[in-house]
Each structure stands twice: as structure tokens, then as C-alpha cells.
Amino acid sequence: DSLQSTGPQQQAALMRNCTNALDCQGTYELLRKYPDLRSPIDDGQEDETTKTVCNKETGEQKKMQKWTRGVWMAVSGGGIIQSWQPLYNSEGPAQVFLVTLNWLVAALGHMNRPERQKTIVSYDNMCHLDNLKVAKKPLPLPGNLKHIWSDVTKIIDTLHISNHKDPKCKQIYHPDQVKKDDLSTFNTMTCEQTFSWLSRFKKILS
Question: What pTM, to 2 d.p., does this model score?
Fold first, then answer.
């Protein structure tokens, strides 16, 4: 059930035909393979009954960016960049959920559920991402892939958790929760550290 990677020639062809966000972000194949995902992700609505009051600038200041909103990266321990995708228009939860799910299926789709439950995903706006309606129930995916989002532990990184004013954010997504499981050395900042390195190229990338 995991996605197949493309070779250099196929990747070059995809870039030449990059006419929309799905092509450029590499998520077209995921939606083609699992078309039932499109409707709930396109809906992009949060569950109002559990929505937090936290605010995060996710697109209102678009004129500060030129070609893209920025980049989304999946970075594992040691600063290894596992996936890199451009973000368009805004860093809205639905767009981020789709590229994150695309990475999860590719990276963890071959694992069983107990193996996946050892994975920790840290994101600065996790409270809104995890509150999407599509994230609140099993995904329209085959087999145990339907549980791939609920299986992973979700936290907000140590840099941004203090900016979240809703008590629910600290209760549900506080990074200290992973330190209770003999993971005191878990680096929740690996992505921010990679962004710091990447910032020297911002005139090329933005």
C-alpha cells in the first residue's frame, strides 16, 4: 500500500508538467490511487466542537511571499530531509494535512500499527491540523492505512508550544509527553534547525 518512488526521468517529466499544486507537491498520485480522499480533504473544515482558539499566520500576509508560501519538510533525526514540498497560497491545515499524509503513507505505509505507533510527528500548528474533520475519523484508505494518522503521536515543538494560548494545546500536544517514554533526547526542533540552515537560500526559494 505504500507509494512507489519515481526515477530521475519520471521526476523530470513531472516537473515539466507541473501546472498545479497537486503535480508540484507530488500528491496527485496519492489522490489518484485513493480518490475517496479528495472530498474530505477538499472540504478542509475543522471540527467546531473541539476547535482551539490559537492563532497562526497561515496566509494572510501573502504579499510578503513571491512564488510560494514557503516549503514543507519532513525532517527526521540527524537533520535528514525525508520529503520536501512547496506550499501555495497559504499554509492552511488542509494543504499541510495532504502533504503530511502523502509522506506518512510513503514512509510508514509498509509498517504494522504497533510499529507506526512509535512515530512522533511534531508540527507548530498541530492543534488545527489534528482538528480537521478528515483527521477525526478513520481515513478512506484500505486496510490498516485508514489508521495511519491516528496511530502516530502528535505534538507541538518546544519552540512554539509557549505561543499556544488555548490550554487544550498544552494538554494534548505538549512535547513533554514524549519524554515520559524514555525519549528525553527526542529533538522536536530538528525541522526548525533545518529551516534555519535553509534560510540562507530564501532569496532563491521564496
Answer: 0.77
